[in-house]
Amino acid sequence: MEIIRDIASIKQIIKKARQEGQTIGFVPTMGYLHDGHLSLLRKAREDNQLVILSIFVNPLQFGLGEDYEEYPRDLTGDAAQAEKVGCHYIFAPTVKEMYPQGYSTYVDVEKLTDGLCGASRPGHFRGVATVVAKLFNIITPDRAYFGQKDAQQALVILKMTRDLNMNLDIIIMPIIREEDGLAMSSRNAYLSPAERRAALILNQSLIKAAAQIKSGEQDAAAVRAQILENISTEPLAAIDYVTIVDASELTDVVEIKGPTLIALAVRFGKTRLIDNIIVEV
Amino acid sequence: MEIIRDIASIKQIIKKARQEGQTIGFVPTMGYLHDGHLSLLRKAREDNQLVILSIFVNPLQFGLGEDYEEYPRDLTGDAAQAEKVGCHYIFAPTVKEMYPQGYSTYVDVEKLTDGLCGASRPGHFRGVATVVAKLFNIITPDRAYFGQKDAQQALVILKMTRDLNMNLDIIIMPIIREEDGLAMSSRNAYLSPAERRAALILNQSLIKAAAQIKSGEQDAAAVRAQILENISTEPLAAIDYVTIVDASELTDVVEIKGPTLIALAVRFGKTRLIDNIIVEV
Prior knowledge:
The structure is a homodimer of 281-residue chains. Chain A has 281 residues and is of the alpha/beta class. Helix content of chain A is 38%, strand content 22%. The first copy, chain A, contains 10 helices and 10 strands. In chain A, strand 9 and strand 10 form a beta hairpin. The relative contact order of chain A is 0.13.
């Protein structure tokens, strides 16, 4: 496995792979890999002949006062993990390589980005869509892999690729959780031991909501109230949002029917965590 | 030559051409072809094995009250002309094919689009960048051809392809003029005989400005004042803008030196015409 830092070199590698008729699987990440990322790489390895992982902490998707500077980074550790699951290249460009002086082009996916994390983090999805559009043009993958943990992000990317007629498939893979149920996230590294324990309330309240719906509750407001109440039993949790929406359009739901996404963002100290579940009625 | 109306079919044709190792030249237009467009097609034919012309009057780049409905259309005539210069396929999608129900992704090129036509036509370049990004993803050309008549458009496209790391070359070809100097444009068809005569003032005033600069004038304000005065001798001309800017950044110039773009937009009746010249000092 090799780490490539510049666009020209990775494009050269891609060109050669294409000439040899290889299929390309791509996993874009911000690094600090956990088992969630590794599950994407493993699937990419199964589906494609060449697997490329990108590691780029994208300043464009962080707002003012967010954790861009502190975001955890460990390229050496990431490389060791990626190599073990059969990744062929890591593309890890600098910020200057991706956004040279005078950079001024942005991709906006409207509507889908109005609510959920888009409402809490203005400009976030513009940054995500822009960097992913760039990475797709650089890597030209046959397939790109995203985790369901960032449910809104996955839908935004899917919408962008369809709307802009991009030539690849987007594969969305299930959330990978710690044994006690906490959704894996690079940001879990920020949590104090007490916050780490408190954060279990997220998955627990989602499981309870799913059970409540399975036992017949279809009133979204009632389910949401139950989740809010559950989370508020945890003094360290500060709710950013809890929302129940159509699983593909992300529009608010009154009566739960069809594929429905229950998504939430909650702060524990300085750390903002997200989690979600899709229920089918 | 064949006319293709849907994205899936043209993608199939492109895929086959790629498998055969053909290079692809692409000329995106709104149709109603004139010799300017044909010069792009001829160049595309010289440089590439397969030449694709798109004809799509893109509603997204027309503002409210602009001429989207009236924009001249003549697919049969266009096809005859395109075939004569060696075009292989015309891609002429419907609006619904390009912007299906729920379409919501847009490409913005900032800064370059603040002035000139961007200031007069809010949203225009968002529409242009978005449709061209889509067309580039559909056609995946090696080279795409644009005319210098739409100077700002050509720079916006060039900037977008560089910023988003798109895998093609942008070729910008010189303005083609009628024998009497009027820059060719599909919108010339709107002009009454009197407006058609009056419109000659555009090229004439640009030529005079270039001569003035060649003879030593470097004060942009003085050159601009001279152009404004020239145009105002023509009663049918209503000036939208006359601007003197750096030829690659489109930023205002005080002293003329290096490659400088003199660009203007002027209305004759309901018809808005643009023209420009690049001078080098």
